[in-house]
Amino acid sequence: MSIPVVPPLAALTLFALWALGLVLAIGAWRSVEMFAGRARANSFPSGTQHGSDMYWRLNRAHMNTLENLPIFGVLVLAGVTLQVQDLAFQVLPSLIFVARVVQTTIHIVSGSVLAVTLRFSAYVVQVASMIVLAVCILGTTGAPAP
Predict the structure, then answer these.
(1) pLDDT digits (tens, 9 = 90+) for 96-125
(2) What does the DSSP assignment read for 29-76?
(3) What is the pLDDT of residues 22-81, one digit of tens each?
(4) Distance between CA 96 and CA 100 in Å, rounded?
(5) Number of Cβ atoms within 10 Å of the Cβ of 131
(6) What is the pLDDT of residue 43?
(7) Structural domains in the chain, sorted by start
(8) What's the whole-model pTM score?
(9) Are 8 and 76 in contact (CB under 8 A)?
């Protein structure tokens, strides 16, 4: 299976749009619950598990995405600013985005042991890829790699 490769800034934009899509899904879920009379506007306490299991997994998947967006953003913006031409820098942002979508989708769909294992694997792909991006960037600047 090959992943579609887009420019690093496009991958970063898609990652941000993915996070936005998740927050819109949370908002839609809450709206349906309120309009159906199953919840009130104050029925969604921040940081406290609430709602169905799937809703809570959606909520956590959104937070996981937001936790990684700034790191991904810094790496892509630094690489683009420094005009990194390394092939890894051109390909890995797309892989990171695809792995994020896979991780999020698995997270929302199931909390089974297999699902958690698969989503962790997708997360490892993201972290390893971000480390490689950082090494590419530091190699361009002449700074010592970690």
Answers:
(1) 999 999 999 999 999 999 999 999 999 999
(2) HHHHHHHTTS--TT---TTS--S-HHHHHHHHHHHHHHHHHHHHHHHH
(3) 999 999 998 898 888 887 887 787 778 777 889 899 999 999 999 999 999 999 999 999
(4) 6
(5) 14
(6) 78
(7) 8-35+53-141 (1.20.120.550)
(8) 0.89
(9) yes
* Both structure tokens of 121: 């694997």
pLDDT at 36: 87
**Amino acid letter for position 77:** L
Instruction: Determine how many CB atoms are found less than 10 A away from the CB of residue 110.
Output: 16
d(CA 141, CA 120): 32
Euclidean distance between CA atoms 128 and 126, whole angstroms:
6
Max intra-chain CA distance, the chain: 60
